Amino acid sequence: MDERSFALGPGDGEVAAWIEAAVREIRRAIGEGRALIALSGGVDSAVAAALVHRAIGDRLQGVFVDHGLLRKGEKEEVLAALRDGLGLAVEAVDASERFLQALAGVSDPEEKRRRIGRLFIDVFEEAAQRLGPFDVLVQGTIAPDVTESGHGGGRLVKSHHNVGGLPASMRFRLVEPLRALYKDDVRRVGRALGLPEAILGRHPFPGPGLAVRVLGPVTAERLSVLREADARFLEEIRRAGLYGEIWQAFCVLLDSRSVGIGPDGGRRLGHTIALRAITSRDATTADIYPLPPELVRRVVQRIIAEVPDVVRVVWDVTPKPPATIEWE
Ligand code: XMP
């Protein structure tokens, strides 16, 4: 599809016109064909799905790959929102065991991304064969994904898996209607398309999911520690009414054990969890969000008391740059 049609992000009052032009362009690009979209539950894929659904209706099929790397309760929430909210046909594929196997023993972040990206494509191709034929694959790639992956003039910082990871043998044509947009504009487009705030207000979530927040090797046990800690952090942020003010808030599980004090008063080695909460405009830069001290204290107490084997919680106060938002 002609990317130049989407080179200008919508300014105030331009959203409806942008959508109209995008719908025309998508219809032209897809023609009479059928399209497949990977739904991650994030804002980008949901908005891309809503846009393409508006353009071609039930010739769009959604596939939700459960890679087992999502946050607690997210799969159920996301499926309910997309099927009921969007009225989209969504096939859910549970591939969590396959992803765990593919990640076994892998610590290098870029290798994690490569393996997750490859397996995603495999799972899709299988789903496409089952549900197809399809002519087009729709992706919710947005501008920062493109520039940060070394395309469009940016330098390679991290190989975001949803860009350029498609094998040459893939029979689909690729349609990426959000390529020129940054997050705020994606949300505005989604709002104009009638998507619920529960989806639009969601913090961005990386394609490789919790795999890049479990530093070092990814195992079911380590994922579970991170998922439980993360759920408590987000719960307290929501309870304090701060979720909407924060661009991304999440926990990271560190890959070294640290010394703590057990219930018997003796020293023991346990997990360390890092808290990260940032503000941003488009994820290319970020500032730390000033979490209230009493919130931090409550989160730490809950994580230590409720998540087994966590003995230490630290708070990451580094802006981007020099740090990236994710730790890996
Ligand atoms: P970084 O960590 O590069 O993150 O400052 C910028 C934004 O991108 C998200 N992120 C990813 N998204 N695949 C994605 O789809 C990835 O591999 C990936 N790595 C980071 C990150 O959560 C932040 O919003």
Protein model, in words:
The protein has two domains: 3-200, Rossmann fold; 213-315, GMP Synthetase, Chain A, domain 3. 39% of the residues lie in helices and 16% in strands. It contains ten helices and ten strands. Strands 3-2-1-4-5 form a five-stranded parallel beta sheet, with helices on both faces. Strands 6, 7, 8, 9 and 10 form a five-stranded mixed beta sheet that branches. Helix 1 crosses helix 2, helix 2 crosses helix 7 (183-192) and helix 9 (220-239) packs antiparallel against helix 10 (293-306). Mean pLDDT is 88; it is low at 1-6. Xanthosine-5'-monophosphate is lined by residues 113, 145, 148, 157-158, 160-162, 204, 206-208, 248, 283, 320, 324-326.
Keywords:
16% strand, 5-stranded mixed beta sheet, GMP Synthetase, Chain A, domain 3, Rossmann fold, 5-stranded parallel beta sheet, 10 strands, 328 residues, binds xanthosine-5'-monophosphate, 10 helices, alpha/beta, disordered N terminus
Mean pLDDT equals 88
What is the helical fraction, as a range of percent?
Answer: 25-40%
- Give, in spatial order, the strands making up the sheet with the most strands: 3-2-1-4-5
| Structural class estimated from helices and strands | alpha/beta
Please tell me how large the radius of gyration is.
Answer: 20 Å
CATH homology group of the largest domain: HUPs
CATH topology title of the largest domain: Rossmann fold
Q: Any ligands, ions or cofactors bound here, and which?
A: xanthosine-5'-monophosphate
CATH architecture heading of the largest domain = 3-Layer(aba) Sandwich
How many domains make up the 3D coordinates?
A: 2
Major sheet details: 5 strands, parallel
Overall strand count = 10
Contiguous uncertain segments of 5+ residues: 1-6
Strand content: 15-25%
The shape, in one word, is: globular
